[in-house]
Amino acid sequence: GESVGLHLPTLSVQEGDNSIINCAYSNSASDYFIWYKQESGKGPQFIIDIRSNMDKRQGQRVTVLLNKTVKHLSLQIAATQPGDSAVYFCAENPRAGGTSYGKLTFGQGTILTVHP
Amino acid sequence: GAVVSQHPSWVICKSGTSVKIECRSLDFQATTMFWYRQFPKQSLMLMATSNEGSKATYEQGVEKDKFLINHASLTLSTLTVTSAHPEDSSFYICSASSARGHQPQHFGDGTRLSIL
């Protein structure tokens, strides 16, 4: 089946730098995307989402960019802090009408390490 | 808002034991709940989708007689791992959504299951 993948499994940055985490998806039927943060021993925490009719969405210190042409999703974290250290997953949700509607497919994850 | 509670957080038991994991939505009604399994340093794999009052839908390769799911109310779903063996040891995570599709799933903090 189609899957969501990530380019980089690990990312190390200095505190205060901006971080960019990338995700490539292959299911052209997906029209809703979510970024989650997972800290060690915990469940994923919702960060930000975006629908396919948008190219960009901003939250507090985070921005998600969606490029449907190349099926690419990115999460930008501004002024990265040590508390941002975690595993970040992108997830895709197929559009309505199919049997997979409502089910999330997760990417492999990127480990973000922020050095003080 | 959108808090999902999962219990227990950690279970250690002998091979052959059945283990029940509870997933509760504390401040919203979850029409759909999902159960995932996660191995160390890997992504989340969907096991089954649970809708209140109906039978769960299992993903390919997941044994429904091994992983019993009950979704008796809009705030509670349970996963029972029957006759657990060491290969069932994993991190089990539930999520809940108030609507299927373009709504983020909210996750519990997972259950670490260790079968001796």
Task: Give the structure's gist in a few sentences.
The complex is a heterodimer of chains A (116) and B (116). With 116 residues, chain A is an all-beta fold.
Descriptive overview:
The complex is a heterodimer of chains A (about 120) and B (about 120). Helix content of chain A is about 0%, strand content about 55%. Chain A is mainly β and about 120 residues long. In chain A, strands 2, 4, 5, 9, 10 and 11 form a six-stranded mixed sheet that branches. In chain A, a hairpin with a 3-residue loop joins strand 6 and strand 7. Chain A is globular, with a radius of gyration of 14 Å. The model of chain A has no long low-confidence stretch (mean pLDDT about 90). Chain B is built from no helices and eleven strands. In chain B, about 0% of the residues lie in helices and about 50% in strands. Chain B is globular. In chain B, the strands form two sheets. In chain B, strands 2, 4, 5, 6, 9, 10 and 11 form a seven-stranded mixed sheet that branches. Chain B has a four-stranded antiparallel sheet with strand order 1-3-8-7, with no helix packed on it. Chains A and B meet through strand 4, strand 5 and strand 10 of A and strand 5, strand 9 and strand 10 of B.
Order of helices and strands of chain A: EEEEEEEEEEE
Poorly predicted runs of 5 or more residues of chain A = none
- List the total number of helices of chain A: 0
What about the largest sheet of chain B?
Answer: 7 strands, mixed
What's the β-strand tally of chain B? 11
Beta strands of chain A, count: 11
Low-confidence stretches of chain B: none
Average pLDDT metric of chain B: 92
Strand % of chain B is over 45%
Shape descriptor of chain A reads globular
Which descriptor suits the 3D outline of chain B?
globular
User: Which structural category fits the helices and strands of chain A?
Assistant: mainly beta
Radius of gyration of chain A: 14 Å
Radius of gyration of chain B: 13 Å
Quaternary organisation of the protein chains? heterodimer
Distance between the termini of chain B: 37 Å
Indicate the mean pLDDT of chain A.
89
Helix content estimate of chain B: under 10%
Strand content of chain A: over 45%
